[in-house]
Amino acid sequence: MARPLRVQFEGAFYHVFARGNRKEHIFYSYRDYSVFLEKLAEAAKKYSLLIYAYALMPNHYHLAVETPFANLSEAIHFLNSAYTNWFREKHQIVGPIFQGRFKSVIVDKDSYLLSLVAYIHLNPVKGRLAESPEKYLWSSHRFYVKEKRAPEWLAVGPVLSMFSSGSGKGRKAFHRFVTGFRIDLEQEIKKGFILGDESFVNMIQERVKSSRLSPEIPEAKRLMWKVDAPERAVELIRKIEGWSEKEVFSPRSDAHKITVYLLKKFSPFSLQEIAELFKTHYSSLTVKVKRFEKRMANDRKLREKVEEIKKRYLSNVKT
């Protein structure tokens, strides 16, 4: 299985998050949280990271990180490994404590720095761990809103400078912004591994194309497409072919079967993503496509029809 793509370059800005294995806790005590922050400080110093925000939740964590030296993978691997080793010894457990490799979304810092910091600081509130962000001990919000010296590795200055620097008024204005933040960044983050406007996405696409990345890497493959979600691909197919939404989502119609076939065979989207869109299980979707392929093998006219639709579809989605 190919590893997830890490787009790394000097000055890249990311939302990084990692969950506990099987969604189990990665923090049980005050000491656990404290040691993780110690390891984060070590990683920041060792790899020259700029940490803009963090939130440590019982079974996962979030970071807003900038990498001046294009070394995100090494840095987060060091952080997770160092904490895992300490945690296993402390709690006398074996095996991984994190669920696979960490996840990262590359973010347009100019457009989303403030929004990402707010999103991270609101996670404990959304998770009902605190009534308001300043009351949660294990996020960076308190260093933004209180006259308390932030750790050297926590870069609060760039954000506070947007609110009259570090003055009391600026801190209050920042707090008001965070508590009033209503944009659902979570849905944007789930769409892919880039968060930014069209020009930013194009810039990242060019970096990927010029870096000789394997097309078998899911995110690299996805970047070669103009549509970034299966529902948008379905909408495009509908418009090209003049099909109604009812036709495409009716399991017995050829429009539905052709659409599912095209998405499974000729798109960068996972079976799980496609299955969720059509409200079915991915195993059922696989069976459906196999049956349709057998039918095409015995029906020349259908095969030719699908081939023509495929050409029109691919000419509109590939970059």
Please, could you describe this protein's structure?
- The chain is an alpha+beta fold and 319 residues long.
- It folds into 2 domains: 12-195, Transposase IS200-like (Alpha-Beta Plaits, 2-Layer Sandwich); 226-317, DnaA protein, C-terminal DNA-binding domain (Chromosomal Replication Initiator Protein Dnaa, Chain: A, Orthogonal Bundle), CATH 1.10.1750.10.
- It is 54% helix and 10% strand.
- The chain has 15 helices and 5 strands.
- The protein has a 5-stranded mixed sheet with strand order 2-3-1-4-5, with helices on both faces.
Brief summary:
The protein has 319 residues and is α+β, with helices and mostly antiparallel strands.
Give a quick account of the main beta sheet: strands, pairing sense, barrel closure: 5 strands, mixed
Please state the CA-atom Rg, rounded to the nearest Å.
23 Å
Q: What number of domains?
A: 2
Strand content: 5-15%
CATH architectural group of the largest domain: 2-Layer Sandwich
| Topology order in helix (H) and strand (E) letters | EHEEHEHHHHHEHHHHHHHH
The side-by-side strand order for the widest beta sheet comes to: 2-3-1-4-5
Separation of termini? 25 Å
Quantity of strands, as a count: 5
Gross morphology is elongated
CATH class of the largest domain: Alpha Beta
User: Based on helices, strands and strand pairing, what is the structural class?
Assistant: alpha+beta
Reported by name, the CATH topology of the largest domain is: Alpha-Beta Plaits
* pLDDT < 50 stretches: 213-218
Count of DSSP helices?
A: 15
Helical residues, percent: 40-55%
